[in-house]
Structure formats: C-alpha cells, structure tokens
Amino acid sequence: MFAARSASALARLLPFASLALAFTAAAAEVDAALMERMAKEKAGRHACKVAICDVARNRRAEGPDIACSIVKTWTVGDLKEGVLKGRLDWPWGHAQCQADIRLDRKTLAQVLTADRIEVKLAKHRVACTLDQKEGAGKYTISFAIMPTVTFAGGKAIRATLNWSEIEGSALAKGAVWSAATLDNHIGVFETATLETINAFFSDRCDEVKDELGR
Q1: Are 163 and 144 in contact (CB under 8 A)?
Q2: What is the per-residue pLDDT across 30-67, written as a single tens digit (0 to 9) for each?
Q3: In sequence order, what are the beta bridge partners of 155?
Q4: Comparing C-alpha atoms, which of 182, 198, 189 is closest to residue 86?
Q5: I need a surface site. Which of 1, 77, 111, 124 has the fewest CB within 10 A?
Q6: What is the pLDDT of residue 8?
Q7: Cβ(108)–Cβ(52) under 8 Å?
Q8: First-to-last C-alpha distance (Å) of the chain
Q9: What's 214's DSSP letter?
Q10: Alpha-carbon distance 124 to 68, whole Å?
C-alpha cells in the first residue's frame, strides 16, 4: 500500500517537476543570450576604450577628437548596486543604452596630469530600452546629459550630469524625470559617476595597456 501511495504521489509531482525544469531551462537560455549580447557590446566598445585611454595616459593632444558610438547593457544588479546604491528603486529589468560619445582630445590629454581641471562636455543624447521584469514587453526612454567633471591629481573628484530633454514611455519617463530632477539638485548619482570614471581610467585602461601607443 505504501508503494502504491508513493507511486501516486510521484505521479502528481512529475508535472510540476517537468514545469520547473522547463522554466529553469528557459531562464538559462535567457541568461546565455544576455551574456552573449553583453560580450558583443563590450567588443564593440573596445576600440573606443583604447583610443580614450591612449590619449589620456600618453597625453596625446595632437590629432582628431574622440568620436565613438557605444552600446552597453546594465543588468538589474549593476543598476541597483553600482548606480542607484539603494537610494532609488528600480522597477524594471535590464537596460540597454546607446550614445554617441564626443570628447575634446586636447582636454582629455590633460585630465590625468593637470593639478586641477574642470571638463565640460558637450550635450550627449542617450537612448535606452528597459526590459520589463516579467514578460517580453519593453519601455523606451531617451534623455540628454551635459556632464561637468573636475579632475585633481589624476582623479575625478566632482561630477554633475545635468540631465534634460527626457522623452519616452509614460511610466519610464515619469520615473526617470524624478530621478534626474533629484540628481540635478542634490547629485544622487555623483558617487556612482565618480567611481565609474576613476575605474575606467585605472582598471579599464589597465586591461588595454599593451595596446596603447601603437
């Protein structure tokens, strides 16, 4: 009788187990696709990273300005832990953003060696697609930033992004507008911005140091 009950219970559990395995396999496929997408994006940014690091580290002031089109995906974890740092909620999934970067070469060549320098960048437009946490739907958002960064002793010590021209899906636009307004007034993203800039000119440039100066 015990064997019969066990067999019956197992029969009831099998459909749920199969469903769980199916969800696990689907999640693995999504993760693999995301990792592949991010790897392609990183490869696409490589030449731009080399160009920026070469000018900054080797003080190459002569030549054309830096112009790159970059695409980057931020995972939910990146956004919550590396950008928002618990100060604001993130109600969406991963975010993929695209921007055309323009940097003045002569200014870039001074940021790591000048005693103190304030860098005012031109207006840059950023366009993002935000995944929904559940489902295949997506939100779109675009905005402009005009960053001002102060460097001293080879480090970024102050930064403002100066957000404007926020457009996109109503729900996303409202949330981003609130965050941007808060940042414009009290600099909630300054710490994350400084960490990103300083990590780029140190760790990220170290990754391509053998390619600089070629």
Answers
A1: yes
A2: 588 899 999 999 999 999 999 999 999 999 999 999 99
A3: 152
A4: 189
A5: 1
A6: 57
A7: yes
A8: 79
A9: -
A10: 12
Indicate the pairing of strand 138-145 with strand 124-131: antiparallel
Mean pLDDT over each residue of the chain, to the nearest integer: 87
How confident is the chain (214 residues) per 10-residue block, as mean pLDDT?
50 48 44 91 96 96 96 92 85 93 96 96 95 81 96 96 94 89 92 95 96 86
Q: Which amino acid is at 214?
A: R
**At CA 72, angle to CA 148 and CA 25, rounded to 5?**
150
Long-range interactions of 136-144: CB distance < 8 A, separation 24+ = 139/92, 139/168, 139/169, 139/171, 139/172, 140/168, 140/169, 140/172, 141/166, 141/167, 141/168, 141/169, 141/172, 141/173, 141/176, 142/166, 142/167, 142/168, 143/167, 143/176, 143/180
Give pLDDT tens digits for 146-167: 999 999 999 999 999 999 999 9
Identify the H or E element spanning 164: strand 163-168
pTM (predicted TM-score): 0.82
As a whole number of angstroms, the distance between CA 60 and CA 20 comes to 56
Can you read off the two tokens belonging to residue 30?
């999504």
Integer Cα distance of 199 and 201 in angstroms:
6
Spatial distance between the Cα atoms of 96 and 38, rounded to a whole number of angstroms: 9
Name the strand (E) or helix (H) holding 180: helix 170-186
- Pairing type for strands 148-152 and 155-160 reads antiparallel
Task: Give the residue carrying structure tokens 């295949």.
Answer: 136
